[in-house]
Specification:
single chain, 424 residues, alpha/beta, tt1808, chain A, 2 domains, eight-stranded mixed sheet, 33 strands, elongated
Length: 424
């Protein structure tokens, strides 16, 4: 419930969800896609509380302050069950673990992870991307990219939850609950025991997508893009390479082929296509005079060792192009590949497809560009042949493509996309 206090009323963005069993009082501002769980007490009676976009405040949390203090949860802050925030500032994309206590005038830097049951005493300043735990709190180590992806993926579930709650949540009246009586009741009870899919957030943190709040909810926000899903072949028939190449020759759309399966590739959104265009133009200008070529999304790539035929968004080749023996239109020796992530393909591009690309002997760089938020993941081989990943999420950051020895600003990559700050 929302309560007025001394002329101050809570301001809640329409995309947020505040559970009716939460108590939000006074001078409180709640941003986009924020989730406030039942039992949370958010008291803006003696000072101001600002909860920025994409935060979540889970069950039984308390947020309060001494008189005249402003409490701020910055974008994407994740406050675990039962935590207390008293007069503190929580940085962007932080995680505060369950039943932690953050005291007055504490400032927690961006990207920190605060362990469960941690006590941070008044006035502490926690540097960005610190892992903190204990009573009293101690800084244990730096938050790795993998840990931050894991955290962000977990927060994304809560960022999508407000839209889901508005769509499907409601109180169950007396007499409407499943009774569990008779044959029909037994069948209903047994259906409740069935599990169709588990989501293990912590099993493979290195493979978890980095999803800032702008792209977490499919239900709200002007920056959210829905793209058509790939039409997978589920007929059970196995196709030969010749079958596939015949399909491509006579079809008006592009398909992927892998181990006898053919499926249609998902179409790109306007934002997706604009990013591809921006990267093509920026790289094209800078690599003039170099021995490398940039090839667009119509260039098919074939990997003989694993049978994959696919169409990357951009392909860079720095040697004499080597076509496939079976198909002179397909390239077999790309040096670098750029994929722009779409909602329906992002997990595949980050995991399975990356693994398949690594079977290309000449493959040195893999660049993933998010189409719904400002995020570039740059994978490259080091001198020992190991794959290294660097991430960038600021418009002032540069993507340094080693294959062609040029850099591109993220502001140029996202120019005209409509994302915050991308209208240079």
């Amino acid at each position: 419930m929302l309560y007025e206090f001394k002329g101050h009323r809570p301001i809640v963005d329409p995309s947020a969800f505040v559970h009716p069993q939460a108590a939000v009082t006074g001078d409180v501002s709640i941003g986009k896609n924020v989730y406030i769980g039942p039992g949370a007490a958010i008291r803006g009676d003696w000072g101001r509380i600002i909860i920025e976009d994409g935060c979540n405040v889970q069950e039984s949390c308390t947020i309060h302050m001494f008189p005249g203090v402003t409490v701020r949860l910055k974008e994407g802050a994740h406050i675990g069950h039962g935590a207390i925030i008293h007069g503190a500032v929580i940085g962007r994309n932080c995680l505060v673990g369950m039943n932690s206590v953050i005291m007055d005038n504490v400032e927690i830097g961006d990207g920190c992870i605060i362990g469960a049951l941690t006590f941070i005493k008044a006035g502490e300043k926690i540097p960005r991307r610190s892992v903190v735990a204990g009573n009293p709190a101690k800084i244990l180590k730096e938050v790795s990219d993998e840990m931050l992806r894991w955290k962000t993926d977990g927060t994304a579930l809560y960022q999508a939850l407000p839209g889901e709650m508005r769509e499907s949540w409601g109180a169950v009246e007396d007499g409407e609950a499943g009774t569990g009586k008779g044959e029909e009741g037994e069948a209903e009870w047994r259906r409740g025991l069935e599990v169709t899919e588990y989501i293990h957030i912590g099993d493979h943190p290195g493979n978890m997508p980095y999803e800032p709040w702008k792209k977490a909810s499919e239900e709200s926000g002007d920056n959210v893009v829905k793209e058509p899903e790939a039409a997978y072949n589920d007929s059970g028939r196995r196709f030969s390479l010749k079958d596939y190449l015949d399909v491509e020759e006579h079809s008006g759309m592009r398909h992927e082929y892998y181990k006898g399966t053919i499926f249609a590739m998902a179409g790109g959104s306007m934002e997706h296509n604009r990013i591809v265009f921006n990267v093509t133009i920026s790289l094209g200008i800078k690599i003039q005079g170099k021995s490398c070529d940039i090839l667009g999304s119509d260039q098919r790539v074939y990997i003989p060792s694993n049978s994959l035929y696919t169409y990357p968004d951009l392909t860079i080749v720095c040697d004499q192009p080597i076509p496939a023996e079976e198909d002179k239109m397909s390239l077999t020796n790309p040096s670098a590949i750029v994929e722009v992530l779409s909602p329906t393909t992002k997990n595949y591009d980050r995991t399975t497809k990356f693994t398949l690309y690594q079977d290309i002997p000449t493959f040195q760089e893999y660049i993933l560009i998010d189409s719904r938020s400002v995020l570039v993941e740059h994978h490259y081989k080091n001198a020992d042949g190991q794959w290294i990943c660097q991430t960038s999420d600021q418009f002032t950051d540069s993507l340094a493509i080693k294959t062609v020895d040029v850099s591109v600003l993220l502001s140029d990559i996202y120019k005209g996309t409509g994302l915050l700050g991308a209208t240079h």
